[in-house]
Write a structure and sequence with these properties.
- This protein is α+β, with helices and mostly antiparallel strands.
- The chain has a single domain, classed as TusA-like domain (Translation Initiation Factor IF3).
- Helix content is 29%, strand content 35%.
- The chain has 2 helices and 4 strands; from the N terminus they run E-H-E-H-E-E.
Length: 75
């Protein structure tokens, strides 16, 4: 998937991945995709809940070797 911006939040504990994702997505235009990498297991719930409550869409998510990757589309 092509992302318009990539955020590497690996090694950061909650709530920092969400804080950084909010700042990064604010720099995007509606319809653009933010790709987020994180190693915090809580991010699976936290980033999904934040995106939905903010009106954004988690287009896809995967976990590979302890790294969670999210693709979030800005609304």
């Amino acid at each position: 998937m092509n992302a318009d911006k990539v955020l590497d939040a690996k090694g950061l504990a909650c709530p920092m991945p969400v804080v950084r994702a909010k700042k990064a997505i604010d720099e995007l235009k509606a319809g653009q995709i933010l790709e987020v990498y994180t190693t915090d297991k809580g991010s699976k719930n936290d980033l999904t809940a934040w995106a939905e409550s903010s009106g954004h869409t988690v287009v896809d998510m995967k976990e590979e070797n302890g790294v969670f990757t999210f693709w979030i589309q800005k609304r």
